[in-house]
Amino acid sequence: MNRTTLILVCVTIGLVGGSGILAPNARAAPGPTLSIVAPANNAIVGNGSPVAIVFAVTNFNLTEPDAGPSTPDSGHAAVFVDGGFAETSSTNTVVIPLPSGPHAIRLQLVMNNGSALSPDVTASIAVMVTRGPATGAPGLSIASPREGALLGTDSTVSFRVTNFVLVPAGGPAGVPNEGRIRVRLDGANYSELTDDAPLHLNLKDGPHTLTLELIDNGGQSLTPAVAASLHISVRALVGRVQPFDATPYFALANVLLGLGIVAAIYRKLEVN
Amino acid sequence: MRTLQRSSGRGSDSRKRSCVLALSLIGVLAASFSASTAKAVAPTLTILSPSDGALVPGGDPVVVRFAVSDFTMVQPGRAGQIGGPNEGHARAFLDGQVVRLVTDLEPFSLFVPSGPHTIRMRLFADDGAPLSPDVSASVRIIATQGPAAGVPSIKILSPTPLEATGHGIYVSYRISNFTLVDPHGQPNAPNEGHLQLLVEGIVVMEVVQYDPVLLVSLPDGDITIAARLVNNDGSELTPSAAASVAIHVAASSAVSLPLVSNGGIALLLAFILVVLILRRRQAARANDKLRVEKP
User: Fold this and answer.
1) In which band, very low, low, confident or very high, does the pLDDT at A24 lie, cut at 50, 70 and 90?
2) CB-based contact, A55 to chain B, within 8 Å
3) For tag attachment on chain A, is the N or C end more exposed, with fewer CB atoms within 10 Å?
4) Model pTM?
């Protein structure tokens, strides 16, 4: 009897445990999840475009903040950029304009009252924003003057950059496809260009070598280096029509006339 | 015989029943088939705007409007969601990259840099899988910083034709229906680009400014200055948008100053010398006269 009772108790416990106590835990709704669909981690966002973050959730209803009671299966996403709160989103896409440079973006699901879920549900990515294009190898060429040109003292140099955007100094280092142009004249630093305006030169007579090189925001050469060189000759009066220049003859005449005047005065004194 | 008749009567009854059953079955099947056909209307997706091949001017974002039929837009991943066959969401792709996950029919805007782009929208089921068969729509657009319409043109305002100038001169111009943008390798786009200045047919400067441009070291004589609008890659517009002006360049007074001053001084000195010589001769004659009168 005791044995039968024991078996019955064990069977009952097994049935109750299997169907009534353990099952609810096994069937409990899984917790919310969050994943970032786009952009990909470490993506480069080009052209200074705002960053469109597309994310997906499961077991979570996206609702406007403060809309309805706070429950762990509804709320919105809080967006953090570089550790600081940026904004909230109750839709699956959030668009954030970001300056050039690397950025860490973190999304966190929060309840309607703004408090985090327990356990915390977050997703993070890193992106690099550049004002230049996202892809393509930078290039640099000199549009004018031509190689070996003979120029006057004053001249201008026009250049073209491709897949690269010129920006003022002071931006974050390591940003691809943006920076400035370092100008070297005869091997020495001459200036740095931060826009596409032509370079104005005022050079002394003789041969000169001009080198333009793309550099990043940190002032470092690109890898691989991108540069263009130009050899020019400068002659002050190039392009000028020069008729007979009597200036030196006039100068000589002045001297002779001066001597003549002195002689005339001296002779006059002698006569007196 | 009766038995035979009965049996044959039973047989005809059973055939009637079979016939009725078969007809009923066919009817039920037909009804269910037609019902299932009605339920299985495929969703559609249409991009209402922009239209295919549209020009998006002024650097503005492009606003995408779309419509779906037989499809309910819902947020994917809702708590307790049981996905239906004709519900889900849409995803927008710009040049193949996901840029929006859309859960309603509200228009949305996309930032698009200059150049041609493809916008594609595609319907997805609640589980994140694309519908099968695929339901999508796409349009091609061209974005530009320039205006939507009008023929680009340029007019040189200064110098004026046959104007006499020195070796440096400001060139001012007026540009219409064209926007100047920094060329940095971006694709060509209608009504945007930069400006080339030419002296005697040779490009001497490329600029992106509307303000007057200083040209220096111009050669002496009668020369032609030209300005033309070009695409982002430096190629000429089609049709060409250019203007030119003929001017006369001569040395400035500053250049001839040494010559003039030296010549002037020489004249002055010569005059002094002549005066001295004349006075000396006059004095000599006076002395000679005195000598003649004294003896």
Assistant:
1) very low
2) yes
3) N
4) 0.74
